[in-house]
Amino acid sequence: MELIINIVIVIAAFLFMEFMAWFTHKYVMHGFLWSLHKDHHIRDGRKIEWNDVFAIIFAIPSILLIYFGVVNGNSYLLSTGIGIMLYGIAYFLFHDVYVHQRVPMFKNFSNRYLRATVKAHLEHHTPHSNHNFGFLIAPIRYYIQEYKKNRQHEIRENA
Hints:
Elements: H1 2-32, H2 34-37, H3 53-71, H4 75-99, H5 112-124, H6 140-158
Helix pairs in contact: 1-4, 3-4, 5-6
């Protein structure tokens, strides 16, 4: 039973981080710490940005929870830290590697979810955009648009 509880905690922590990413992005990165985030909106091919400081900030709770979970034998702390860490890995792979190609790999997926989420994120980067959302889940309209586009393509191929 404890294994199931720990799995639920990992998943809950992962999902909570999507909310934290949205909240922090909207109110902190585009708010009082814009000075650290603004270079992320300037796509000039740099591999290191001031915005990367946020990765360190988000990693600290994960590291501490994992450390204290292991040292104190507390599986709930450990599971929470692992959930945050897994979100950080997913964020890095999706946002930095796939969307922005800061590490040149994972190109041209045909997956509808990925195309819709990337489109939403890239629209966020357009000048004067007020689109703010999480990093792994975009507003439903992007997924609907992608579904309709894909459906129309399938109809044309079968005609």
